[in-house]
Amino acid sequence: MEQSSPEKLVADLLADPRLSFLPRQNTELWISKLAGFCLLWQKWNKKTSLTAEREMGLYIRKHLFVSLQFAHALDYRVAVVDIGSGAGLPGIPLKILFPDLPMLLVECRRKRANYLKQVVRELSLQNIAVFDCKVEEMGEPPFIIDTAVFRAVAETDTCLEMAHCILQLGGRVVLLRTPKEVLTVSNHSDYSREENIEIEDFEGNPLILACYRKEK
Question: All domains of the chain, ordered by start, with CATH?
Answer without folding.
Answer: 6-214 (3.40.50.150)
